[in-house]
Amino acid sequence: MFFVIPGIVLRIVALIVVSIASATDLKSHKIPNILTFPAALVGIVLQALYFASWSRAHDIGLSLAAGATNAIIGWFTGVFVMALTKAFMSKFGHGDTKLMGAVGSIIGPGPVLMVYFYYSLCFGFYSLIRMVLALPWKQLAMSIELKQAGGEWQAADMDALNAIRKEIIPVAPFIALGTLCTFLFEKQTLLFFGFTE
Fold it and tell me: For residues 107 and 97, what is the distance between their CA atoms, to the nearest angstrom?
């Protein structure tokens, strides 16, 4: 083949897509279809060219098909893992699902699972910190002391915690963090989980 597409190109495109999605999600709490669907199409084309760029001249057609298939499987993998999350977090829209699908089409099915893993860690950690900071610790401590002293339990004011629980959290920045962590720690993660030696 007279041209070669290095893997770094796929990673740069994925980072550009998640960066744009993060900016729009932070601004409008939406991840537009005008970004996710074309990004998925670009991913399919790039994966096809990436596979073809490493093949011999007589295998180009097969390699193009293999790359496109890999991208489509990556899209379905990304969509599946995010759609599965919807069973537990029903307040979210589907822009994040389509974004994860687009990322999967660009980088493939294996790496998008790692993106989901890091996304889950980052999102979970952020949510936990927000909830811990919103708890009325002073009121809870006073209620416990009162109860231990034989008094009646005083209900703590949970308005701040309830407000945070109802808050819409932009998800795209966490997908972007997951993507970046995947690119930075891919080898270490695979080694840690025993997928490589």
Answer: 16
Contact 173, 21 (CB under 8 A): no
Q: Is the pLDDT of residue 38 over 70?
A: yes
Q: How confident is the model at residue 161 (pLDDT cuts 50, 70, 90)?
A: low
Q: 84 CB contacts (<8 Å, ≥6 apart)?
A: none
Distance CA 153, CA 134 (A): 20
pLDDT, residue 157, reads: 62
pTM score = 0.85
Distance CA 4, CA 158 (A): 58
Whether pLDDT at 155 is above 80: no
Question: Which residue carries 């994040």 as its tokens?
Answer: 96
Dist CA 133 CA 123 (whole Å)? 16
Give the per-residue pLDDT at 140: 67
Question: What distance in Å separates the CA atoms of residue 115 and residue 21, rounded to the nearest whole number?
Answer: 15
Q: Tell me, letter by letter, the H, E, C secondary structure of 144-165.
A: HHHHHCCCCCCCCCCHHHHHHH
- The CA-based diameter of the chain, rounded to the nearest angstrom, is 85
